[in-house]
């Protein structure tokens, strides 16, 4: 498109040449160059298309669209002079791409599906297709006007995932020779780490370290494999925890995040961003779960009302959660609560003037994100010490080794954890996922 763009690999150039089908999909490893190739194809389409209707970009949320789609498009180091003709503000309903209005939809937002139902679509770009609900994707296909095209990316998922079974398995080169129900108007290209000419060997090695077990096979090897066994199969308390007394200075406490329970435990964790620097004095922050509060009515032999639970939580929240070697008594910027805990949120607001945010409860996405952070050493969990046995996150640490995939869900193509002893893990997941747009400005991982 312009000689100021980054150079493209032979695989990327081949996909651009062939991306003339109704549906065009780039799949494979993370950071393999598939997103850049798909975005170039999308820009060419936006610049040349005359089909009737609206242009749309779809991602899991509008924030993820800003991060995964528009951040690369607006980066002059990637798209050269073209980047100045693309603008988007995270959370906005639409972007401007090469002078054209492009609607931006978050597939997890029910309002987006309502918008989609009334839309005549001239062209669509879809980020991470497997994170969409099947009925949303089906509706999107139905909204494509004659002559319209869809450009999409995805990482591998379960081999029984609806997208693999209903679509990819009916495309070259995935379909069986005897499969007569082919999709002739689809084109699919599979990418691996070595197909990205911008990745150094050091960066490839980092990506391999940041993905383990299931996520290594999918995100690095590009395999469509089923989830089975331990979720955090890499878990090592020696590597992934730190004594509470040894916590580094925190630049801020990013969030209090809480999983609400009545008969089950209620668990709240504090997520901090460290003020660490590297050997050259450059900022090198990490995320830390610095402290945890739990109320288990069975262990305590006392079932609390929402009002009583709120009083105990607020009393704990007002304690000091960082060791004496830190200089500030910090308070969390966000209070993130389990979306199902409506009555508890009312109590916090009415009686304690605490306004909370509903947690992002995309379970699989949150698990993948938290696993990548922990395995990369970018998220560390504080453990109690003999001098401070009431501090740290013993619930999270005790639950992590037994966190396993549900084999019944795997059989139907879903990745779900067993709902056993996961309350601190859920609370932690809420904090990491809901604040992702904030900590991503400090911390870079492959997820």
TrEMBL record:
Pfam families: Terminase_6N
InterPro entries: P-loop_NTPase
Protein name, per record: Terminase family protein
